[in-house]
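hi! just following up on the protien thing from before. the input was this:
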Amino acid sequence: MLKNMLRLKFIIPAVFGSTALFVFIFFGPPDVYTLTSSPAFCSSCHVMEYQYDAWLKTGLHRNIKCVECHLPNDNFPNHMAWKGIDGTKDVIFFYGRLFSEPMKISDHGKAVAQKNCVRCHGEMVSRITLGERTCWSCHRRVTHKAPLTGDLF
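and the predicted 3d structure came back as:
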């Protein structure tokens, strides 16, 4: 009995401490979520400058943030989990110089982007038979092509 009480003395503070640390890391200091969701933050890595310029200059979807297309937006916990996973991966790939040039979107990234296209443009897409096609197979300017050269990034 005494042994169990001693364990609880350590377990309860550890649980509360871990929970507090998780909440702080998950929600971060004020405005971290907003800052890391901004297109300016996404373009702060030099490998994303072309994609940012293409997004800014083409005018298509210029009023929405990168995370609206490139992260799952079906529910907040899933969004936050993938924000952490993709953010960590991006940091490792960028600072480890493991990225390929030209940049290519992953298969998971393609699936997420496709779901987000359908989420935002569902009424229009409901009248189309997509089959295996992606939205950007027809709407090529959405894929961060250079506005003047047409190069795909």
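The mean pLDDT is 80.
The chain has eight helices and no strands.
cheers
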